[in-house]
């Protein structure tokens, strides 16, 4: 098999299965950036989305000034294209991780791009929950923490659905982060495929990214359907 690949796809074979920027290393880097950036950015986005709903119109702790500030922060970050965000956060990235290159450095702009995107989706999901459930919890003397638990439990299937969308978006952004040498399949597609006119390398990297996206979509749909029938 290896001999057949070497003969028919020498450019793919040269990248190899061992060492830095090998195929396994690229897959690992893509998964690392996707998962860690989602954990960081997703957590911040979940908090932001929650407080946008809680402090927004008819929220349980309605506070117009706080809502306006949170809403503007989310809108501003959401409007910045990711490739520009990479440049804007260059200084912050260097301050936090000591470098602007590599998969760990890419976590800063990836997380920054994730949190407003996810926050808006969380806001939409929680805003559409049945108000009767929330009001019933309030009437029973629920604390703010209790109400947050109600929001999260009632919105869980849809939160998983929007998490799936966010993860898929992140996979695409990790590929774009290859422009700053983040590693991963994006770096291979750009540096070893596109820049060297090795179309076979670019195609394989693209196929691997698509497979990863299909797996995320399948798992997300499975969990959403399972929880929706509870």
Concise structural overview:
The protein contains twelve helices and no strands. It is mainly α and 230 residues long.
Detailed description of the structure:
This protein is mostly helical and 230 residues long. It has one domain (2-228): MetI-like fold (Orthogonal Bundle). Helix content is 80%, strand content 0%.
- Helicity, as a percent range: over 70%
Largest sheet: none
Estimated share of beta-strand residues: under 5%
**Are there runs of 5+ residues with pLDDT below 50, and where?**
none
**What is the 3D shape?**
elongated
Quaternary state of the chains: single chain
- Please tell me the overall pLDDT: 87
By CATH, the architecture is named Orthogonal Bundle
DSSP E strands, number? 0
Number of domains: 1
Number of helices: 12
CATH topology: MetI-like fold
CATH class value: Mainly Alpha
Topology (SSEs and partners):
Blueprint: H1 2-8, H2 10-15, H3 23-55, H4 64-79, H5 82-88, H6 90-97, H7 103-127, H8 131-139, H9 144-154, H10 156-176, H11 184-194, H12 199-228
Helix pairs in contact: 3-4, 3-7, 3-10, 3-11, 4-7, 6-7, 7-10, 8-9, 10-11, 10-12, 11-12
Question: How would you describe this structure in keywords?
Answer:
12 helices; 230 residues; MetI-like fold; mainly alpha
